[in-house]
Amino acid sequence: MAFTAQAQFHVLAVDDSLIDRKLIERLLKTSSYHVTTVDSGSKALEFLGLHDDQPNSLSDSACNQEIEVNLVITDYCMPGMTGYDLLKKIKETSPLKNIPVVIMSSENVPSRISRCLEEGAEEFFLKPVQLSDMERLAPHIMKGKSKQQQQPPPQQQPPEHQQNSHNDNTAAISTHNNSGGNSNSNSNKRKAMDEGIPAERTRPRYTVTA
Question: N or C: which end of the chain has fewer CB within 10 A?
Answer without folding.
Answer: C
